[in-house]
Amino acid sequence: MSKEAKSGLQALLTPEESVVVLIDHQPFQFANLHSHEPTMIVNNSVGLAKAAKAFDVPTILTTVLEERGGYLIKQLQDVFPEQKPINRTIINTWEDQVVVDAVKATGRKKLIIAGLWTEVCVAMPAIHAAGEGFEVYVVTDASGGASKETHDMAVRRMLQAGVTPVTWLAVLSEWQRDYAREKTLPGLTDVLLEHGGATGVAFNWETQLLATGRGGTNA
């Protein structure tokens, strides 16, 4: 189990300490995804990937038996067009030395995982890596299982192993932390506009009002 602090400022995520691993967002896994609406998982996982890119967080893509289960979904691959996902035969990503070596090469200890399915290809590496001293965060709304029960039971099991559940917007917000950090603010805004749902819609509306001089408040 990870010995890292679970409270206090040091427990929050920073871009400099984080590494992201996206696991098996492939057609075969989506075909039996029933814990969430599939389009929501696509939106959230792509939003997480774009955020990682905007904040210069190392991101590792991996698939399992892609020749049968299908390639990584195009929306994710398009975020990192130059990266070839690590194709595994091992179900537990953390038993694949190529993936482990790629994570360790970053020197980062805050491991952020999202993938399909939660109860299998997310839970296994999350529990395994936590046992090796990594501070593991699982992005629950960019992951999904074969049913709501399997997803929920996996999250409970990971909690017992010291893994921290988190959502993709929480990750993005912790990376930004301060709106005065102007370097990453445009990237944050772009991600929210494209993947933030009502937040993006409201921001576009606010931009429209400001552009037309109608942004004042009534007395």
Automatic annotation (TrEMBL):
Please name the GO terms that the record assigns under molecular function. hydrolase activity
| Keywords assigned | Hydrolase
Protein name, per record? Hydrolase
Q: Which residues form the Isochorismatase-like domain?
A: 19-168
Mind telling me which InterPro entries this protein's record contains?
A: Hydrolase_YcaC-like (IPR053152), Isochorismatase-like_dom (IPR000868), Isochorismatase-like_sf (IPR036380)
Give the PANTHER family listed for this entry: HYDROLASE YCAC-RELATED (PTHR43559:SF3)
**Taxonomy of the source species:** Bacteria, Bacillati, Actinomycetota, Actinomycetes, Kitasatosporales
Source organism superkingdom: Bacteria
Kindly name one Pfam family recorded for this protein: Isochorismatase
